[in-house]
Write a structure and sequence with these properties.
The protein is α/β, with parallel strands linked by helices and 311 residues long. The protein has two domains: 131 residues, Alpha-Beta Complex (Quinone Oxidoreductase, Chain A, domain 1), CATH 3.90.180.10; 142 residues, Rossmann fold (3-Layer(aba) Sandwich). The protein has eleven helices and eleven strands. The protein has a six-stranded parallel beta sheet, sandwiched between helices. Strands 1-2-3 form a three-stranded antiparallel beta sheet, with helices on one face. Strand 8, helix 8 and strand 9 form a beta-alpha-beta unit. The longest helix is centred in the N-terminal third of the chain and has 21 residues.
């Protein structure tokens, strides 16, 4: 999306890797055509999937891509290329949020905002697999019904549309007044007065004070909000709870080679869990290459939308 493009460009500039153009469609799935003499992981005809780095010279919409083997993993045979390309980044974000940042363990209680989004769904399914108790919010009646029908089931679906529920009171009721161990958001409200000027979608986001309030002692808040501002009262409440805030930025995995081995392990685990049915994303409908421009315009207008282009 346009927002992700701008964020990626700022991230590159901060790393002193100035580029005028950022490749689009960096989540790719395809077949290896040729390998160099030092390549050890793959052979021609192998089916692979991966995420191109921000400074890649190739877009994912190119018919042929030249990239490093350390950005790719083997794609399980029964896994659809369209499916895995559409949700690989969300799977990486969910894995990073729950394992890398929050150190999730069996028995933890987790709040995922907007659980019906692709990222939220990955978080819910991954958390349920590891034995966590999951609470989530729904942004529409349709999303609410979808989330209530999930299997394994979540402990509680909290409707936040039409001011239909008080997040804090419901979470405290579900946790016996203790609060949750982990909160994973998809964005937050910073100030109450923002509501009058923001879109309907953003009005459904929780306020930062609500998130801090639902955290239990020693809790972890993993946020996707890069411009988060915490005032002294917010910090004091976090301090009193000995709670922590982590910023979720999946681009760090390909920005440095120091975590390459761990990154590849995560990608392999994600595609294996998708292949075995642990992670079951909503099906994505691929569009042909000649419709890519129109699809990109739609994605720019709706930041949470995505499009899978099939060559």
């Amino acid at each position: 999306s346009k927002n992700k493009y701008n964020n990626s460009r700022l991230y590159l500039i901060s790393l002193r890797l100035r580029r005028d153009l950022i490749p689009v469609g960096r989540e790719v799935a395809g077949v290896v055509l040729q390998v160099g003499p030092k390549v050890t992981f793959f052979q021609p005809e192998d089916e692979v999937v991966g995420i191109l780095p921000l400074d890649s010279s190739f877009s994912g919409l190119c018919e042929v891509i030249d990239t490093d083997e350390y950005y790719l993993v083997q794609k399980p045979e029964k896994l659809s290329s369209v499916c895995v390309a559409g949700v690989l980044r969300d799977g990486l974000c969910a894995y990073s949020a729950l394992h890398t940042h929050a150190r999730m363990a069996a028995g933890h209680t987790l709040l995922v905002t907007d659980g019906a989004s692709s990222f939220g769904l990955m978080c819910i399914q991954l958390a349920c697999y590891h034995g966590a108790k999951v609470l989530t919010t729904s942004h529409s009646p349709q999303n609410h019904t979808f989330l209530e029908q999930l299997r394994p089931s979540v402990a509680r679906v909290i409707p936040v549309y039409n001011s239909s529920s008080d997040l804090l009171s419901v979470v405290m009721e579900e946790t016996g007044g203790l609060g949750v161990d982990i909160v994973v958001d998809s964005g937050v409200h910073l100030h109450e007065e923002e509501e009058e000027v923001e879109s309907e979608e953003k009005k459904l986001l929780p306020h930062k004070h609500d998130i801090i309030s639902v955290l239990g002692v020693g809790g972890h808040w993993v946020t996707s909000h890069q411009d988060l501002q915490l005032d002294p009262p917010d910090c004091r409440l976090l301090y009193l709870k000995s709670a922590s805030v982590s910023f979720l930025n999946p681009e760090v995995w390909t920005a440095s080679s120091s975590q390459q081995g761990r990154y590849l392990h995560i990608l392999k685990d994600i595609v294996e869990k998708m292949s075995s049915g642990v992670l079951r994303p909503q099906p994505e409908e691929a569009v042909p290459l000649y419709e890519a421009t129109v699809a990109m315009e739609t994605v720019q207008r709706h930041p949470k939308k995505k499009a899978v282009v099939q060559l």
